[in-house]
Amino acid sequence: MKKLIQRIKALLQRILKRSTSNCQQPSPLINYRLLETSLPSVSPRWESGLVLVCSQCANEQSGSTASEDLENWLKCRLKFEGLWGEFRVVNTSCLGVCPRIGITVVVVSNGSHGNSPCLIVNPQSDRELLYSYIKQNKA
Description:
There is one protein chain. The protein is an alpha+beta fold. The protein folds into two domains: about 1-40; about 50-135, 3-Layer(aba) Sandwich (Glutaredoxin). It has helices at about 1-20, 55-60, 65-80, 125-135, and strands spanning about 35, 40, 50-55, 85-90, 105-110, 120. The strands form two sheets. A four-stranded mixed sheet has the order 4-3-5-6, covered by helices on one side. Strands 1-2 form a two-stranded antiparallel ribbon. The longest helix is centred in the first third of the chain and has 21 residues, at about 1-20. The chain is elongated, with a radius of gyration of 20 Å. The N and C termini lie far apart (about 50 Å). It comes from Nostoc flagelliforme FACHB-838. This is (2Fe-2S) ferredoxin domain-containing protein.
């Protein structure tokens, strides 16, 4: 079994090397560049930020869909104001904060350098405040 896995791994590495060397003109929407690990990477379209909404917070508290409602509201609002694409809203599993009340949201932007705070948001009353915070992170 180990030999089979090693063969598959070697084959995939050869295929990856061939495909990257044969790529003469990449797609204008996708900017491929190789990392030190030789894994291809893609520059995302959501350059202003990524909004992570914990899908476990509200489920743990009451079994409700409050985090899903907040996520959908943010998506609709960003689309309505023409900011969808610059920002991306996704749900995530537990972020390890686990507030008693509220939902954990992290807004990751290019300027945050990995120092993004975990926001504890009331999914109903803090929507507009969260949205203004997201807009402040616009590149």
